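Hi Y.,

Following your request, here is the sequence exactly as I used it, all 295 residues.
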Amino acid sequence: MRKKRVKSQDRIVNIIFYIIAIVMIVLVLYPLWFVIIASFSNPADVANGEVWLWPKKWDISGYQALFAQEQIWTSYRNTIAYTIVGTLIALGVNIPAGYAMSRDDLVGKKWINLFYMIPMFVSGGLIPTYFVVKSFGLLDTFWVMVLPFSVSTYNIIVARTFFKNSLPESLWEAAQIDGCGTIRYFFQFALPLSKAVLAVIGLWTAVGLWNSWFNALIYISDESLQPLQLLLRRILITNQSLLGAATGTMAQELRQLSDMMKYASIVVSTLPIMCLYPFLQKYFNQGVMIGAVKE
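Below is the corresponding structure, written out as tokens. Let me know if you'd prefer a different format.
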């Protein structure tokens, strides 16, 4: 009798947890779904609250106006290139640094830690950074988006914690007995066992690069090198300027077109990077949990 009562209580608790989980999922997913259906809906229907789960009337004029911009495909290509190359460079810089910092036999480890930690809290500022980038001849080049800001102290700390807590010292000792050096051990043993932290840091970096527009605004004036986010920002600002100068029927039409382009730009700019997450979710969850363990 008592066991049945316990099972009944467990069943009630599970039902409550499922209800809470479903409510949280709906609260998270519905705003995303609303943006998608609003981008295919008439702005008047959206403004009147007539769009809830499905477009009342399909309208793709927002996407047509957005993709009619001549530069959008160039900017899309630039963003994809910045994301792929920048992520690879960030992994190639931060992962080896994190592994080196996890080694107790690293000479000068204390001072190297300090060297990495100070810039994490105190930066040189925008103007000195601009002059440094300019002195290296990186202004208005492809590499200004992927090289100067590739080092991340936070990512190095996450990688260091992962290597410290996940790779047993006995593995390194066994590799040494077999004549394996540090570099060979890193590439043949450490990296294959570090898919989780690679996925986490890679995803963080990719999302940051995909959404980056401020660095392009400061360091790139050549329109052929500008990323997608900066172009979408300029399009929306231009539409708002035209809307402020228009009156009457023209102002109403421009307002509707601006709203549709706004929703369409959100979908265009976020959907590709969101599609990447399901493929990395398993490694992402594992890497966050392991990398967060305190040393």
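The CA atoms of residues 133 and 139 lie 7 Å apart.

Thanks again,
Q.
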